[in-house]
Amino acid sequence: MKIKDSILLTLKNLLHPAGLIGLVIALIIPAIIWFLGRPSGGHKEIIRQLDLNLPLPLFLFQMAVAIILFAFLNKDFREWFKGILPQKPFSLLAIAAAIGIAVFAGTQIEARHRVQSDESVFMSVAQNMYHNHESGTCNQGIFDGSHLNCIAKSNSFKTKGLAFLYFLGMPLFGTDLHWIFNAELLMLPLAFLLMFLAIVAWTKQPLLAFLAALLMALQPTVLFQFRAMSVEPLYIFLSALSLFIFKWAYDRNTVMHWALLAITLAFFAQTRQETAFCLLSFIFFAFPKILDKKDFKAPTFFVTLSLFSVPALLTISYFQGFGFQGGEFEAHGHFLEDLKRNWIEMTRPLKENGELENPFLTYFNYLFAIGGVYLLFRAIYDATKGCRFYLWTLVFLLLYHVQTYMILENVSGDFSIQINQRYSLVMLPSMAFVAALPIAHAIEYFAASASKKEAKPLAFAGMVIVAIILSAWTFHYKEDFNKNIMYNRNHLTTEEHEILGWLKEQPEADRLFIYGRPWHFVGYGVSSIHYDRARQMSDAELQKYIDKYNGEVYYIRGLDCWDSQTYHKKAVEHRIATTCDVFEREMDLVGVKNILITNNYWVQIAKFNGRKHYNPEKIIVVKDLEPVLDSLGVSLKILLKETSEASKNWNYTATLNGKIIGAAPYQEGFYEIWNAADSLQQGYNLFRVVVMDTQKNTKLADISKYYFNAAGGASALEQGSITGHRQDWGNLRWNKSIENHDMTINGTKFENGFGTHANSETTIGLEGKYRAFRTSFGLDDESLCSEGVSVQIIGDGQVLAASPVFQSGIVHTLTANTEGIQKLTLKTTAKGSIDCSHVDFVHPVLIP
Questions:
Q1: Burial of 57 (0-12, 13-18, 19+ CB in 10 A)
Q2: Using the 8-state DSSP alphabet, how is residue 114 labeled?
Q3: For residue 806, what is the DSSP state?
Q4: Between the CA of residue 369 and those of 135, 207, 210, 656, 732, what are the distances in Å?
Q5: Do 306 and 62 touch, CB atoms closer than 8 A?
Q6: Consecutive H or E run containing 840
Q7: CB neighbours of residue 788 within 10 Å
């Protein structure tokens, strides 16, 4: 039949009462939902309530209908399945490959989040579904036995299919959702086999099907995502399942088959908002079959698909006008730019040490490019011969990947941002199919040149050889998988991983966390509230929680609390540093753990003891140090101003260069501590005053002051004394850090000295005039990711003093005997990479 005649027949079969009514209903459902959700429409509350309350019962109904339909079609499926199964060697090889790849992923890749905020949203929605039968995100929640009290919730901007699957598993596997990692890993071999079977069913080319499934599963970004809690693995699984059931419905062509396909596609649409655009390709190619005569196939398919797509439609409608992506960057209008950049990211060469730069294999992308050209020419050539299979394949892929355009156009789809690399999983199955085409056909072509009897064994052997080569290429990057090459620079996932690691070390107990992203903990079944919520509570309410959790209430200062630029301008991140600073000023906190995440910030965990009942700024004031009677000594003047009831349990301790020079119970008043001249060292002297709460064993104040003692002619090192200098990065800065900030080591600021960068050598001309040289040093707080640095003081070529390798957070001091030394060199040596090795030399002093 000619295409024109086929189109006319299809339209004629659509124009009957059942067909028209079904089509109208199918179109009215999304139209009404879209209309009610318009930002200017005034009906958004209706959509909000439906989005919260309708998805769960509709999902359950959808699942029940699917089970019933499959029960009726079970015998038919077994018959059809036997008919499409390839020869046993192909099936066995596919099963073996699927299991082998899953074992590799399960043993070589750590199970952990890759995109923390997105993945924890699915978990939090699942908790809300399970405990409250709502489909929104539980942003802040208190677990009370078997109940979750969501004290702050919102509509989830994520589609809810993955959360629903978690919900189904919770009665069996528990509400601590760590079991999800194993569930996602199990989906890997199933997705492999489904993709293999779907391509076999459509093409009757098992060699092509096997290589396509293998190429897809061997991509590092795919393996990493199947070891996470991401929605993308479910996307791959459901895309293969949809193609598989589509072929079954296409072959059998009954109302029940098309209804089952519609239910499958509708759940497929619940993976990502953009997935709804995939349905266009299925609908386009279903038309000729469901409208081959005037019956109920078309109206059943359309209405079922529209009805069960409602959860995704509600989500899309409610969030009309919301700008989720882009950060400081406008996401729209960069499609071609992102395509170009993503090609560069996916074809980056290896690092100098042989590591993967990104979780993509360069060869795969070039195979895809070759396959794309091959498919285009094959489609055109075959069409001229009257065979349109590859032409329709090309059309299907183009329609299917309208969603790819939507992703790259609307959500900052730039793969140079690590968290965006997961979007590639939307494209990788199709890319794998296209890449496998020329390989499979080349193997078959060369095998066909042998005798007819030997052709099939030769083709199978060729396929096995290619499979071994491809698998070995992926598996030989084992160390990169072990090192978490994907998202190993994702600060937020590292933060969560470290917090959970600390939590595992603690005894089992009910806990409450006060955190910037409380839904992260809620998703794991742990109570958590936001900083602002805690600040709004009365003292009695706070104490109630402290008592309820037996003191196991913790404050976490995480990524959101730091001002440093730890995010890409295209990423969606928010900083609430002021909120955290105010919280810490108001609340009584006892630090229990500091965890270095990267060069810009630490995660700090503190036990929460309620609101402070004193003014921190009044605890202690250290007056300027003033010389008394010139050379006789120096006095330390301190003012204690706090008079609250809490201060009865305090004391203060004053030290000089680490030696106690005064200690007493805290009491309001003015105090002067005298220090004789012989108690001072030549050069810089450190006076320190610490106020402690003896009842809680909590440090309330820690203040340091420096006094320079010039007795005996000691002098601070001056810039003019430096006669030579070299360093591997940047330039030496006097009285500043290498990045021109105040020199700060472990939170203490220093005014005198210089900032350099390892590896470095700084030469000082002494000309035999000085008996000793002393300096303190450490890694500046501006960049805390150094692998470690050591310092040597070298005099006329001989090492006079040396430090061990040190890292961030400590101030070190070295003193060297320099009698007779003409030239002194301060040498810094990085332990490994020089990255972040910002060394401050502070309070350098020359002693004659």
A1: exposed
A2: S
A3: B
A4: 42, 20, 19, 71, 49
A5: no
A6: strand 838-847
A7: 16
State whether residue 115 is helix, strand or coil: coil
Residues 6+ apart with CB under 8 A from 325: 331, 410, 411, 412, 570, 572
pLDDT tens for each residue of 779-811: 888 776 777 899 999 999 999 999 999 887 788
What per-residue confidence (pLDDT) applies to 464? 95
- List 702's β-bridge partners, or say none: 690
The size of the chain, in residues, is 848
pTM: 0.81
What residues have CB less than 8 Å from 82, skipping those under 6 apart?
none
CA 441 to chain centre: 40
- Extract the tokens encoding 652: 């203060």
How far is residue 639's CA from residue 619's CA, in Å, rounded to a whole number? 8
Side chain identity at residue 66, one-letter code: A
Considering only CA atoms, which of 737, 767, 761, 749 is closest in space to residue 838?
737
Cα distances from 278 to residues 66, 243, 702, 791, in angstroms, run 21, 11, 61, 60
- Strands of the 789-795 sheet, one edge to the other: 722-727, 760-765, 823-830, 789-795, 798-802
Exposure on the CB side of residue 487, measured as CA atoms within 13 A: 28
Question: Low-confidence residues of the chain, pLDDT below 70?
Answer: 1-13, 321-332, 412, 489, 563-577, 599-600, 624-632, 784
Question: For the chain, what is the radius of gyration of the CA atoms?
Answer: 34
Handedness of CA 499, 503, 504, 506 (dihedral sign): positive
Residues 310, 317: Cα–Cα separation, whole Å: 10
Q: How far apart are alpha carbons 669 and 623 in whole angstroms?
A: 13
Angle at 806 between CA 803 and CA 812, to 5 degrees: 60
Q: Are strands 789-795 and 823-830 parallel, antiparallel or unpaired?
A: antiparallel
Q: Which residues contact 547 (CB under 8 A, 6 or more apart)?
A: none
pLDDT tens by residue, 827-842: 999 987 788 889 999 9
Q: State the first-to-last Cα distance of the chain, in angstroms, to the nearest integer.
A: 105
Strands 715-716 and 838-847, by their bridges, are antiparallel
**222 with 474: CB under 8 angstroms?**
no
Retrieve residue 426's tokens. 């939307």
The H or E element that residue 444 is part of is helix 428-448
| DSSP one-letter string for 532-543 | HHHHHS-HHHHH
Q: Give how far Cα 421 sits from Cα of 189, 426, 477, Å.
A: 22, 10, 18
Tokens representing residue 92 in the block: 């066995």
Residue with tokens 């979780």: 359
CB–CB of 298/22 below 8 Å? yes
Residues 213 and 97: their CA atoms lie apart, in Å, by: 10
- C-beta separation of 611 from 542 below 8 A: yes
Identify the burial level of 204 via C-beta atoms within 10 angstroms of its C-beta, where 0-12 means exposed, 13-18 middle and 19 or more buried: exposed
Q: What is the pLDDT of residue 409?
A: 79
C-alpha 763/C-alpha 49 separation (Å) is 72
Whether the CB-CB separation of 475 and 104 falls below 8 Å is answered with yes
Please check whether residue 517 is in contact with residue 252, taking contact to mean a CB–CB distance below 8 angstroms. no
pLDDT at position 506: 93
Q: What is the C-alpha to C-alpha distance for residues 298 and 253, in angstroms, rounded to an integer?
A: 11
- Write b or e for each residue in 662-687: b if 16 or more Cβ atoms lie within 10 A of its Cβ, otherwise e: beeebeeeebeeebeeeebbbbbbbb
CA–CA gap between residue 671 and residue 653 (Å, rounded): 12
Q: Residue 57 belongs to what H/E stretch?
A: helix 55-84
Q: What is the model's pLDDT at position 600?
A: 58
Instruction: Tell me the sheet residues that pair with 756.
Output: 839
525 φψ region: left (φ > 0), alpha (ψ -120 to 50), beta (else): left
Amino acid identity of residue 509, one-letter, is A
Contact in structure between 51 and 312 (CB atoms under 8 Å): no
Q: Residue 114 corresponds to which tokens in the numbers above?
A: 């890759």
